[in-house]
Amino acid sequence: MKPIRQLPDDVSSRIAAGEVIENPASAVKELIENSLDAGSSRIVIRLGNGGKSMISVEDDGNGIPFDELPLAIERFATSKIEDVKDLSSIHSFGYRGEALASICAVSRFEIRSYRPGSAGGGLLRAAGGTIVLHEPVTAQSGTRIQVDDLFFNLLPRRNFLKSASTEGRRAAAIIRDYSAAFPRTSFSAYLDGREIFSTDGIHDRLSVLAKIWGSAGDLRQNIFSESGVDVEAVWLPSPGTRRRDVTVFFNGRRVRDPVVLAAVSSCGEAASGNWMLFISVPADLLDVNIHPGKTEVRVHSSLPLFETVRKTVIGLIEGNHIDPGLIMSPGRSSGGYRSGGAERGRIMSLRNEPGNYFCRVKEAPGPGSGVVGEVPVDPDFSYIGQMGSGYLLFNGEEELVVVDPHAAHERIVYEKFSAEERGGSSQKISFPEQIPPTLSERIGDFRESLEKEGFAFEERSGALFLAAIPDSGYCSSPLEALRSWIRTLDDRAENVRGQEGRSAIKACHSSVRLGEKISNEEAVRLFEDLFACKNPTMCPHGRPTLIRLRSRDIARLFGRE
Q1: Which end of the chain is more exposed for a tag (fewer CB within 10 A), N or C?
Q2: How far is Cα 324 from Cα 228, in angstroms, rounded to an integer?
Q3: What CA–CA distance (Å, rounded) separates 97 from 196?
Q4: Statement: residue 265 has pLDDT above 90
Q5: What's the N-to-C CA distance of the chain in angstroms?
């Protein structure tokens, strides 16, 4: 057995760097946080080859004096804390003094900086952690850091990097998340010289997230405080799916937290969609020093955190008909913002105005086939109403019928598609819509399949536009049609086979969602069209479209039989 010995500095520094810097995105995160700590109002990020060959982050922050540049890349050198007492109440992003040292140890590194009021700017270059140049230069106020050939001297880590497009998407996601967390800071991101995202630093968080997620009208926001925990939640619902994308910021720090994720997940499918949660707790109750990459935190007590997050999420779900433009009333009650009665009434009246008569259902696909599974084709039922959960209730002489509107509409549209054997034809969009960044990134893996189904795309000035969608009777927005198909291809591609599978999926994502408000006329039309189908009792995926509660079954439940 070999004797114990101290590792050389170059080996230990590369090991430490591998703990702090996992990929280009983690390097971008550290550099953005340094810029925010420096009080920057403008941050420009440039990536080459997804960040694998080049990362540049430039800001207009405080800058670093010339004499301190060598210290900036030394391990455990920092301006954020001074002694052990500071560890109990950390308010800055940085404090470990490892980020720049770790990045520098595994790259060809350059830093230019000028602190206003100092004698002049400075330039420092290093390779693999070794300084090769340190000299005065003319520089603008702030700091510019360039990282070339990341992991050039740590091949095992470099070999584990993904493709340039994947690494670029990861880094772009970090940039967008921080732009939403800090909407008063201007962010600009460039990939291989092409601008992929920017904010102007003068808008509020909802405006930034509307640009990122691409559905301003559907955004929901809630703010709630309890047990010393403040939670701000922004939600873009995705009805009819189980997908949840949750981004968490703790005291401004982007982290992964199992307690918060569990709180959102505990609300089930009703919480599907995109979530961004901004959580604030007193600094002395938050331990941020538990992960080298500062991607995890530990709260003094997890139960109050779980309950506060869950109540915030439930509050949004229960009030999901409230429009974000009307959500805030001046007063706060029980720590949360509430909608006034006038606003609630206004929203409901807008939704009940006469308009396009149930464009989601369209015409019936054809004559029925008599009796299917004891359900009459021409039933004598009266419509009762829609449950809060979205199901429709119909009253018959001897039974109560509960209808799942999404499954029912799937059956109607599926039989229409199957009869017409449609697939691949398009309808052009008069004014092509710009595709938001988060959606644009997901198109890459499925573009060929999407175009086969009838989608068409245009590129203008580095942005991607939606020019056509499948000619399939979509009544929702073109972007929502695109989202639906991407969810389909992402979640179900392995299970789709042939024309029947394609028709089923088209039907699924052309259909009204469970939970959408449906007028009385729409509900009756849906019910009639369902019973004109060849198989009205099952959706194309095999789920029931309706449940029958006969009078004798109800009586038995009440103990009357």
Answers
A1: N
A2: 26
A3: 31
A4: no
A5: 82
What per-residue confidence (pLDDT) applies to 367?
35
- Please list, in sequence order, all residues whose beta carbon lies within 8 angstroms of the beta carbon of residue 33, skipping any fewer than 6 positions away: 93, 94, 99, 253
**Residue 200 pLDDT exceeds 60:** yes
**What's the pLDDT band for 462 if we cut at 50, 70, 90?**
low
Res 326 pLDDT > 50: no
Domain 207-341, what architecture?
A: 2-Layer Sandwich (3.30)
Distance of CA 365 to the CA centre of its chain: 37
Task: Determine the 3-state secondary structure of 223 from DSSP.
Answer: strand
Class of domain 382-550: alpha beta
Query: Which whole-number Å values give the CA distances from 392 to 151, 371, 532, in the listed order?
Result: 58, 22, 18
Question: Considering the chain, what is the average pLDDT of its residues?
Answer: 76
Q: Which residues does 493 contact at the CB level (< 8 Å), separation at least 6?
A: 449
- In this structure, the strands spanning 229-237 and 273-280 are antiparallel
Q: Distance between CA 208 and CA 437 in Å, rounded? A: 12
CATH 3.30.230.10 location in the chain:
207-341
For 9-203, which CATH superfamily applies?
A: Histidine kinase-like ATPase, C-terminal domain (3.30.565.10)
- Give the span between the Cα atoms of 378 and 420, in whole angstroms: 24
Report strand pairing: 42-48 vs 186-191. parallel
pLDDT at 355: 34
With tokens 């039974």, the residue in question is 399
What does the pLDDT read at residue 537?
Answer: 83
CA distance 60 to 45: 12
Closest CA to 436 of 478, 394, 404: 478
What type of residue sits at position 192? D
Q: Determine the Cα–Cα distance for residues 260 and 272; give it in Å rounded to an integer.
A: 15
Give kind and range of the element (H or E) at residue 556. Answer: helix 551-557
Q: Cα 24 vs. chain centroid, distance in angstroms?
A: 20
How far apart CA 257 and CA 234 sit, in angstroms, is 17
| DSSP single-letter state for residue 149 | S
Q: How far is CA 326 from CA 30, 313, 319, 330, 341, in A?
A: 37, 18, 12, 11, 11
Poorest-pLDDT segment among 29-33, 180-184, 366-370, 398-402: 366-370
